[in-house]
Every structure is written in C-alpha cells, then in structure tokens.
Amino acid sequence: MIESGESYYDELFAKKDLQGESFTGIEFEECRFEECDFSDAIFKNCKFINCEFARCNLSLMNLSGSRLFTVQFEECKLVGVDWSKADWPSYHVDFELRFKQCILNDASFFGLTLHELKLEECKLHEVDFREGDFQQSSMTYCDFTHAQFMRTNLQEVDFTESTDYAINVLENQLKGAKFSRYEALNLLESLGIELVD
Description:
By secondary structure, this protein is mainly β. It is built from one helix and eleven strands, in the order E-E-E-E-E-E-E-E-E-E-E-H. The chain folds into two domains: 1-71, no CATH class; 88-192, 3 Solenoid (Pectate Lyase C-like). The strands form two sheets. Strands 1, 2, 4, 5, 7, 8, 9, 10 and 11 form a nine-stranded parallel beta sheet that branches. Strands 3-6 form a two-stranded parallel sheet. The protein starts with 6 loop residues before the first strand and ends in an 8-residue tail after the last helix. InterPro entries: 5peptide_repeat, PA_immunity-related.
C-alpha cells in the first residue's frame, strides 16, 4: 500500500483503488500508475517526479502543495482537478507536463505559468485557462468546448486540429500561435465580424 511520509522509486502501482484516501509528504520518482482509482484522493505536499499515469481515474484529486515535474498522463480521467492548488515554483516555467487522450473537463489552470504544456487529443470542456501563461505549448486535436481564455498568454501555442475554442483575440496574447484554417474563423467572432460565403 501507499503510505504517507514514504518515498517510492521506480515502482509500478497497478489497479489500486484509493478513492477518497488522504496522503501527505510522499515522494514518487520514476513511478508508473496503471488503472488506479485516485478519484477524490488528497495528495498534500507530495512530489511526483518523472512519473507516468495510464488509464487512471484522477477526477477531483486534490494536489494541495504538491509538486509535479515531468509527469505524463495517458487515457486518464481528470475531471474537476484544480491544478492551481499544486505548488508551481516561480523560478521554473516548464514543468514538462503531458496529457494524451485525457478527459480534463471542469479543470482549472487559472493563473498558472506552464510553458510547453502538452495536450494531445484531450477533452477540455469548461476548463479555466484565464490569467495563465502557456507560451510554446502544444494543444493539438483537442476539444475546447466552453473553455475560458482571458488575459491568457498563448504566444506560439500550437492549436492545430483543435476545435470549439472561443478565444477573444483582443483579450489574449496570440502572437505566433497556430490554428487550423477553418477553425481559425472562430477567432473572428470575438471581433463581431460576419463572414459571408
């Protein structure tokens, strides 16, 4: 079992059901989590370094005061996670976070600086990106239905093949950002421009 105050190195955690459990001060390094249920779990002041999560349920997980560095999530459910509760040291800008084919609906990245964030084939309905700095991130093949962008730094972000975003070009920094041609027409809506065929 996983115990508070312990350190785990290069371990595999498979099919663990720790729903609603609470942990403090654990350090995970180079660990892999497969098909685990950590929904509603609390990881307080923990560290996740070079870890991988595959097909895990992490919905409503609380990462209060925890640090993540080089963490990859693949085919995970991460609904309602408030990423702003984690500890993101200000001297760092690229934490090497990667999400692939994940569901991140109702999550919050409010006010975070996460350069080079990687989101690939993710569902991001009603996710809060306001006031954040996500320069040089890759957000490709994602669904941004009702996601919020306001005073967000999206310079050089790659939105190729992503859909359903509503980004006001006057309220966000978009210099050098990439959009698929057809979907980029959504950007004109914020300017009140009507397109006629």
